[in-house]
Specification:
Length: 549
C-alpha cells in the first residue's frame, strides 16, 4: 500500500453514494457540450471535494473566487446547500468527468506497469479497485489533486510568468505560430482549431531562483531558497469542425522574494509575494481553411503581500514591522490569430489586454492597530507575433517577438483608510508610495523541434529577455536584469496520452544598484539603500500530462 486515507465516519454515506454514481457515470454517450460545462464545474469544485474527503472543511481555491465562479453555474440556494452538506453534493456531470479521468489514469497505469516510471499511478491497479470504498475514493481524490497545487509565485520578466506548457517551454516559448496543443489557450487560442478531439492538459513547473546581494563593502547576503510551483490546467472541446471551445486556469503573474530580516535593504523590503489565478474561457473559429481567429475573457484573482521594516521615534528610535496583505479581482480579454498562407509556413499573433486589480486588505504596523488599506496594480498588456517554418521535415523552426507594456507600472501606492503615526512624534501618514516608472520591454524567442519518430519529439530553444526596470528605480523587491534563457525538453505520445517535460536555465546579467530610493517622497539614508551588485539565476523543470477523449 503506497498511500492510505482514513475517511471520517460522517462522510461514509456520501462516499458510498459517490462511488455508486462514479461507477454509473463512466459511459461515453453524454452530450459533449454538457460534458464540457461539467468539466468547468469540476475544476471549480474539485479542490474543495478533495479537502473534504481528506477530513477537512477547508478549500484550496480562494473563497472569493469560488463565490464568483459558482454564480455562473448554481443558484444561491443550491450553493448554500452545497456548502452546508460538506461541499460533496456534486452534479452527476462533474462525477462523469471524474470517472472518465479515473479511466484515463487506469489506462496510463497499464503503460506504467510496462516500464514507465510514474509511481503514483500504481494506486490504480486492478487489485486496488476491489478495495473498500474509502480507499477507492482516495484514488479519485488523487486524480482531482492533479488540478490543485500551491499557488506560489516565481519571478519572470518583470513579474510575468510564461512557463505555461512544456512544449512551448522546451523550445524557448517560440510557440505562437504552432500552438498545437491545449496550452494554446495561453499562447495563442487560435491554434485550438488544429485540435480535433476533446482533450485535457495538466502542467506543473517547479522553479527555484538563486539570488545574492554583495554590498560595496563586500558583505554577502543570500535571498531565501525555495521551490515554487506554477500550475496550469487546460480543457479543449471541438463542438464543430470549425469551432472549438477552451478553458484554461493558470498563473500569468507571480513573485516571491524573501530577504533576511536584518539585511541592509530591510527598509525597502524583507518579503514580497504575488499570487494570481486566471480563469480564461476562449472560443476559436476557423474562418477559412488557412485562417483561424479566437477570443477569450479573463477573470484574474490576485493576492499580494509586502513586508518591510520602518523607523519610528517614540523616543527612542525603534524599528517597526510593516506588513500589508490584500487581494482583489480584475477582468480582461485576449485575442489570437493563426494564418497559413503556404503549406509549412504559419504566422501567429496573440494579444492579452491589461488588467487592473485593486487589492484590498490590512496594513499591520508594530504598536498600531491594523488599518484597512488598498493598492492598485495594472498588469501589463502584451503582444506576441511569430512565424513557424516546417518545410524541412522532420524539423520545425520558429521565431517569436514579444512586446510587454510594463509602462503601466508607474508607481505602487498604498492608500490607508485612516492616518497612522509617522516617523516623528506628532506626525501622521495617510498613504505610502514608491515610484516604479517601468518601461515597455521586448523579448526575442528562438526555438525548434525534431520529430524523432511519429509521436515523439525533442525540443530546444533560446530566449533573450529584456528587463523593464530602469536603473533609477531598481530595488531589491525585483532586482531585475536582462536574462538569457536556455531551454530543452521533449514529449512522447502513448496511446491517447502525451507526456511532456521541459527544463529552463535562466541566467540573469549582473545588475548594480546605485540610486537613492524614496518612500512617500522621503529618501532613505544611504546605509539603508542596499546599493551594490545583484546576481541571480534560475532552474525550472516542467512536467505535463494530456489525455484525448
Amino acid at each position: 500500500m503506497l498511500l492510505t486515507c482514513n475517511v471520517p465516519n460522517r462522510f461514509e454515506p456520501q462516499s458510498q453514494r459517490l462511488a455508486g454514481i462514479l461507477e454509473d457515470s463512466t459511459g461515453d454517450n453524454r452530450n459533449p457540450i454538457t460534458t464540457f460545462l461539467a468539466l468547468i464545474k469540476f475544476i471549480i469544485f474539485g479542490p474543495s471535494f478533495m479537502m473534504i474527503a481528506a477530513g477537512t472543511k477547508k478549500t484550496i481555491w480562494p473563497p472569493k473566487l469560488v463565490k464568483v465562479l459558482t454564480a455562473s453555474f448554481f443558484c444561491r440556494k443550491t450553493f448554500v446547500k452545497f456548502h452546508n452538506r460538506f461541499r460533496v453534493i456534486f452534479h452527476a456531470q462533474i462525477l462523469h468527468i471524474v470517472g472518465r479521468a479515473v479511466k484515463c489514469i487506469t489506462q496510463l497505469n497499464n503503460i506504467v506497469l510496462q516500464g514507465i516510471k510514474f509511481p503514483f499511478l500504481l494506486l490504480t491497479t486492478s487489485s486496488e479497485r476491489s478495495k473498500p470504498v474509502s480507499r477507492r475514493r482516495f484514488v479519485y481524490v488523487l486524480v482531482i489533486g492533479l488540478v490543485v497545487c500551491s499557488v506560489s509565485g516565481v519571478q519572470a520578466a518583470g513579474f510575468a510568468i510564461l512557463q505555461q506548457g512544456t512544449a512551448a517551454m522546451a523550445q524557448g516559448n517560440a510557440f505562437v505560430a504552432q500552438a498545437d496543443d491545449p496550452s494554446a489557450i495561453f499562447y495563442n487560442p487560435a491554434g485550438l482549431t488544429q485540435l480535433k478531439r476533446p482533450e485535457i492538459y495538466f502542467n506543473k513547473v517547479f522553479s527555484m531562483t538563486n539570488r545574492t546581494y554583495t554590498s560595496p563593502q563586500g558583505s554577502y547576503t543570500t535571498a531565501e531558497h525555495k521551490i515554487f510551483v506554477i500550475p496550469a490546467f487546460y480543457a479543449v472541446l471541438p463542438v464543430h469542425e470549425r469551432v472549438v471551445l477552451g478553458l484554461g486556469t493558470f498563473m500569468p503573474f507571480g513573485l516571491g522574494t524573501t530577504w533576511p530580516p536584518s539585511w541592509d535593504g530591510r527598509f525597502l523590503t524583507t518579503r514580497s509575494k504575488l499570487e494570481t489565478i486566471n480563469v480564461n474561457p476562449v472560443v476559436a473559429v476557423k474562418v477559412l481553411d488557412n485562417l483561424s481567429f479566437a477570443a477569450g475573457f479573463n477573470v484574474l484573482w490576485s493576492k499580494v503581500q509586502i513586508q518591510r521594516r520602518g523607523l519610528r521615534v517614540l523616543p527612542p528610535l525603534i524599528e517597526t514591522k510593516n506588513d500589508f496583505k490584500g487581494d482583489g479581482f480584475g477582468y480582461g480579454y485576449n485575442l489570437g490569430l493563426l494564418y497559413e498562407p503556404l503549406a509549412g509556413i504559419k504566422f501567429g499573433v496573440s494579444y492579452r489586454s491589461e488588467i487592473k486589480v485593486t487589492h484590498k486588505g490590512d496594513l499591520r504596523v508594530s504598536l498600531v492597530d491594523p488599518v484597512g488599506s488598498k493598492a492598485s496594480v495594472v498588469f501589463p498588456p502584451s503582444v506576441t507575433w511569430g512565424v513557424a517554418y516546417s518545410r524541412l521535415n522532420p524539423f520545425v523552426f520558429e521565431v517569436d517577438v514579444t512586446w510587454t507594456g510594463w509602462s503601466t507600472y508607474k508607481d505602487l501606492n498604498l492608500n490607508l483608510s485612516r492616518p497612522i503615526p509617522g516617523m516623528l512624534p506628532g506626525t501622521t501618514i495617510s498613504g505610502i508610495s514608491q515610484e516604479k516608472n517601468w518601461q515597455d520591454a521586448w523579448a526575442f524567442r528562438f526555438g525548434g523541434n525534431y520529430q524523432i519518430k511519429p509521436g515523439m519529439k525533442a525540443r530546444a530553444g533560446y530566449i533573450y529577455d529584456m528587463t523593464p526596470v530602469p536603473g533609477s528605480t531598481l530595488d531589491p523587491t525585483i532586482p531585475d536584469a536582462n536574462r538569457h534563457i536556455f531551454t530543452l525538453g521533449g514529449d512522447t505520445e502513448i496511446s491517447r496520452f502525451t507526456l511532456g517535460f521541459a527544463y529552463n536555465y535562466i541566467k540573469s546579467e549582473n545588475r548594480t544598484k546605485n540610486n537613492m530610493l524614496a518612500i512617500s517622497g522621503v529618501p532613505l539614508p544611504p546605509a539603508f539603500q542596499a546599493n551594490g551588485r545583484y546576481k541571480s539565476d534560475n532552474h525550472s523543470l516542467g512536467l505535463s500530462l494530456s489525455c484525448k477523449f
